[in-house]
Amino acid sequence: MGHPFPIREIARQAGLSEATVDRVLNGRGGVRESTAQEVYRAIADLERQRTQVRLTGRTFMIDIVMQAPERFSSAVRAALEAELPSLHPAVVRSRFHFRETGPVRE
Residue 45: which of 88, 98, 93 has the closest Cα? Predict the structure, then answer.
């Protein structure tokens, strides 16, 4: 799979190691399906952030973790992404970790 982002950048966005991202992108085994999905979500997030990344200034990473219905988490994502460019000159890059349900331990 071709992608326009360095493995290091994808790993940072996904919160995974570079080796794990490399295994996913090159179709090697030993990676859970949920981990592979995190890598693909990180690439999609980087695509959406492409317009923001061109801004100059200090870069901040934030993680948004939500357990809520998809309609609510989608609205939160859209609202946050609409506001991020207004934080110029700082660049705020977001990583989203959404699920509708989950075990208590997680």
Answer: 93
